[in-house]
Design goal:
Helix content: 40-55%
Distance between the termini: 53 Å
Keywords: Electron transport, Membrane, Mitochondrion, Mitochondrion inner membrane, Respiratory chain, Transmembrane, Transmembrane helix, Transport
Shape: elongated
Membrane topology: Single-pass membrane protein
Strand content: under 5%
Protein name: Cytochrome c oxidase subunit NDUFA4
Largest sheet: none
GO cellular component, one term: mitochondrial inner membrane
Structural class: mainly alpha
Family: Belongs to the complex IV NDUFA4 subunit family.
Radius of gyration: 21 Å
Number of helices: 2
Number of strands: 0
């Protein structure tokens, strides 16, 4: 498959930016899914040691990818401990 893509790119050099953009989009999507699987508090990989990881988050933990107007270091805890 890779050999076919290389042959097409040699015959039609205008396809090279298309291959680069599609490839970088796929890599970016894969990295974002890996970030969600590793650092999102909704995902629990180890149910024996920490069955509910979302209860152990402090208010200053930023788990969103991008927050517009929220400074997480100044937030106070307004929920009970479980």
């Amino acid at each position: 498959m890779f050999r076919v893509m290389v042959n097409h790119a040699r015959k039609h050099p205008s396809l090279i930016p298309l291959f680069l953009i599609i490839g970088s989009g796929g890599v970016g999507a894969g990295l974002y899914l890996m970030r969600l699987a590793m650092f999102n508090p909704d995902v629990c990989w180890d149910k024996t040691n920490n069955p509910e990881p979302w209860n152990k988050l402090s208010p200053s933990d930023q788990y969103k990818f991008y927050s517009v107007n929220v400074d997480y270091s100044k937030l106070k805890k307004n929920r009970p401990d479980f």
